[in-house]
Amino acid sequence: MTIPALITAGDTVKWSATSSQYPSSEWTRTVAFRHRNDNDHVNVTGVASGDGWDFTLSATQTSAWPAGDISWQDYVTKSSERYTLATGTLIVGINLAVTTGSHDARSQAEKDLAAVQAAMRAIIDGGAVQEYSIGSRSLKKMSMPDLIALESKLKADVTREKRRAKLAAGLDSGRAVFVRF
Fold first, then answer.
1. CA 105, 63, 40: angle at the middle one, nearest 5?
2. Residue 58 sits in a domain of what CATH number?
3. For the chain, give me the number of helices (H) and strands (E)?
């Protein structure tokens, strides 16, 4: 088993790894997890087990992780040698059992898309002022062509996020693959 692609914050996560090039009897294997917020970092050192290593992320370690992407780097060390074996990201889902109050399950891209569509609707309905000035200060809102371009980009981002989540969950991404014989 490899590092899972999807976990829930507050869950215990276990996996095993092997490497014929770097035997566990001679090398120490570590996986470093980092979030863009520097306070959310964890290093997990594997426990030698047969030909490989067993890893455990405790519930306490993952409970502080915010929902979203966490980057990881898998590496081995021996004396002064260090070799990176793999890098990647995993998706951390929110732990609904400890969530208080209301919960908006939409991603930031989905929230931004809804806001852009609301701004477009306000312009179409005539309820939005494009530009105004009060004294020496002025405000100019995005034009409809700019909003349409941003909406298109956000729709692509949302579609990419949904495909990625489906693949991480082991489901079909919905993309058609054509083969010619």
1. 95
2. 2.60.40.10
3. 3, 10
Sort 76 into a burial class: Cβ within 10 Å, 0-12 / 13-18 / 19+.
buried
Q: In sequence order, which residues have a C-beta less than 8 Å from that of residue 6 and are 6 or more positions away?
A: 90, 91, 93, 165, 168, 169
State the pLDDT at residue 54. 95
pLDDT tens digits, residue range 60-69?
988 888 878 8
What's the confidence (pLDDT) of residue 128?
A: 62
Whether 80 and 113 map to the same domain: the answer is no
Residues 6+ apart with CB under 8 A from 119: 128, 141, 142, 147
